[in-house]
Amino acid sequence: MAEGDVTLDTSDVDKWIGKPVIFAEFWDPCNATDIRRWVQAMDYANPLHWDEQFARASKFGGIVAPQSFTVAMDYGHGCHPSCVGKIPGSHLIFAGEEWWFYGTPVRPGDKLTQERSFAGYKIAETGFAGPTMFADGDTVHRNQHGALVAKERATSIRYLVEEAAKRKVYDKGNVPPKLWSRSELEEVARVRLEWIKSSRSGVSPRWDAVSVGDALPRRVIGPHSRVTFALECRAHKQNIWGTWRWNVPEGVYDPATEDAGFADDMTYDFEARKIDPRHGDGLFHGPSSGHINAEKGEKVGMGGVYGYGSSMNAWHLDTVAYWAGHDGYVWHSKTQFRSPAFEGDVTYVDATVVDKRETSEFGMPVVTVETRMTTQEGPTILKGTATVSLPR
């Protein structure tokens, strides 16, 4: 390292490119309450996913999971295969997700298994932390019958904590979370309820009736708090005590428990978790604990308590799927995260139809919906697209 320069040491990362990594699976199939817990944490009030009577009367005949739930059936919030190898003095945040879905719904009683691999990385200079690694990890999800459910490519950002803390891009330490007035909260509640009512029946818009430029109903999520972030964490099955196991094939080395170069108070103690499960649940210890611990969040350059990338991607998917209704389906989705959701903020989700095709690689007419998430102050924190089939 030359004086005045900042460099990332990626020498330990290179050996994992293209290799299968992170062998873990859940002991148990999912149940209806797992699905309900997920949509409750994501504030996704689609009755198809929580109301037994409504769901039984639908074409699905019972509770069915939203497509966003797939990530909750995975170890590592989807991003773990993008974080292998040691980078001294580093930390990780989520940068985005790309999903391909294959028409197989997840229902209570299903158990998903995963094949994970590290796809590679690039280094880019960022204002956030100087030289920054953008790393990709792939996960293929299949159910207990071997049917292909989804594929995810997760992109993580690995950066030097000291440099991020010095630059203070997210300098929330000196800015307390917003306090909302009664009238402001009433307006948030009004917009939220309007969105819930907009597609509650599940009737899909007809492809012929949809036009480029059509706006979807506006959605609002929040205000975000340590409580809402904790609920989101607990909605992932992996963060409930004792739900998963390592399943490393014989003769295969898995880097999952290797030192990634994180600070001592941001790593897991895999021996301690055998006695005290708090060491493995993501809230009290480990690299995710900064999400609800302001001191840790500030220490890793995030300026305080902040939300989960997997939740933001779910808000994107759920918003589009809700509009698409029971006869619609999201085949492909891609999101880029520009900032996390911070404590005290609300997130507005606005979406617009930006493309319409008679023929597609999915064998049916589709539309493309673009989403944008902003805070109450206006900055964009996520941009995404989703390719959706609709009935004629």
From TrEMBL:
* Location of the FAS1-like dehydratase domain: 24-151
Q: What Pfam families is this protein classified in? A: FAS1_DH_region
Q: Which residues form a coiled coil?
A: none
Q: SUPFAM superfamilies in the record, alphabetically?
A: Thioesterase/thiol ester dehydrase-isomerase (SSF54637)
Name of the protein described by the UniProt record: MaoC family dehydratase N-terminal domain-containing protein
Organism, scientific name: Novosphingobium soli
